[in-house]
Write a structure and sequence with these properties.
By secondary structure, this protein is of the alpha/beta class. It has eleven helices and 14 strands. Strands 6-7-8-3-9-10 form a six-stranded mixed sheet, with helices on both faces. The structure holds adenosine-5'-triphosphate and magnesium ion. The site of adenosine-5'-triphosphate has 13 residues, from strand 2 and helix 1.
Length: 308
Amino acid sequence: MIEFRDVWKSFKNVYAVRGVTCTVQDKEIFGLLGPNGAGKTTLIMTMATVYRATKGDVLVEGHNVNTEPERVKELIGIAFQDAKYDRILTAREILQWHGKVTGIDKSLREKRIDDTLAKFGLTTEARKRTWTLSGGTKKKIENAKIFVQRPKVAVFDEPTAYLDVPSRLMVWEMIDELRDEGSTVVLATNMMDEADRMSDRVGIMSKGEMVQVGPPDKLKGTLRGRDVIELKLKEPMPELLGEVTKVEEVHDARFEGDVLKLELSNGRELLPHMINVVTAKGGQIQSANLKEPSLEDVFLHYTGTKLT
Ligand SMILES: Nc1ncnc2c1ncn2[C@@H]1O[C@H](COP(=O)(O)OP(=O)(O)OP(=O)(O)O)[C@@H](O)[C@H]1O
Ligand SMILES: [Mg+2]
């Protein structure tokens, strides 16, 4: 378990993190979302002992980052958003070094390195010095550090930025595996599909504050009344508008051409009923479509970053 207790972090006069209080449960995948500059990386750095919080405490498995940093370092592994490597080392040497300092026995370390590099298809590439590697390959090596270490608390900061589609799927699969083995995972990402697919719960940061925490589906449910049903009819029937708005959950109805557009809550449950209401009045439905709020809508709503 990870506990953030009123965590603040300032850089000179800029507060990057402002009073974050939240808990990440054991064996949970916790997605950390927020616009660029929201404070995701800074918050992660305070828990990984890289930055010292200006105020407040972070507890990792009950150990306080400020008073027991060495204990916390043994528990945590972090794949940085922007990895900086010693240019003369090869990718394989980076992984060997990381495995060594995190206390993985040599034979196990070599086996895990071989397995991880093979999964990423990087066995040959990993013999090259890191400065010759492409952006995506460097990112894979940064993630591979954590798959070699297999820490109790695994932190990934934008793990799939720059990655091609098959590699993203591979990283997701490997993160799931880590969690199945018992790791707790914190995953900072700007990709809503990644957060939605991977996270048990997400925390949304905005301007240094944690503005919402919850399971993705529950947060989508907080945008009540944002469902839209579109019924394409043979022809527009304005007389239907009075009928459909009698349903309490429907708060707006209009025709766009021959498409009847209903804004409502509980759209999924009400779809069959709305179809019945329309057909009972002689409407001939040619197709039906339901749109529910996405995690992107949730993100835009709670961070106030909607572009207009
Ligand atoms: N080392 C630093 N020195 C000064 N300011 C910093 C430093 N690191 C971060 N900041 C500032 O703190 C704020 C939060 O940055 P942070 O990197 O935590 O955001 P983020 O949510 O991770 O953004 P991104 O999505 O771009 O990765 C920003 O205003 C940033 O400029
Ligand atoms: Mg960041």
